[in-house]
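Figure 2 data, in text form.
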Amino acid sequence: MESTHSLRHFARHLFLVSRVHAERKKAKEGIDTHLQRMRKSIIRMSLGYSDIDSLKKKIDAFIELEGKYAKFFKPEDDEAKELRGHIAALEQELMNGKEEKQRIVYENGEKIRQLTESLENVKKQMSHLHMEKAKRQQRLTALDKKIREKVDLNKFYTHG
């Protein structure tokens, strides 16, 4: 991922530098050509103000292109280095935060899974105990019925 980003950045930078270099070369050639024509005009004594204005415009354009070209090769100042370092630190902090969040989400998922399993086990035990209670109640009811059929309660209490 990082190498793809670096390659893309390098290719874009290379394209920009080559384009500015080509424009710079073309502007320099334009100035040289114009100067050659002006030399010939001086010899023939046919130099005009428009030639000087045109040369001034070409020189201004060339200076602008030199500035564009130079910015690609200027040394990085301390403030830019500091800002880049700060950005890198913030990106690392963000990455650490994301990793921590993912770890917490995973741990919480595990806890939820364990609690769900425990709850299911408790439900099964409750269901089993409820069934056992119902069976025991049925047996007690049947036993009570048997006892009532065999024992005459009036006779049992009046003897005493």
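Caption note: The chain has a mean pLDDT of 81.
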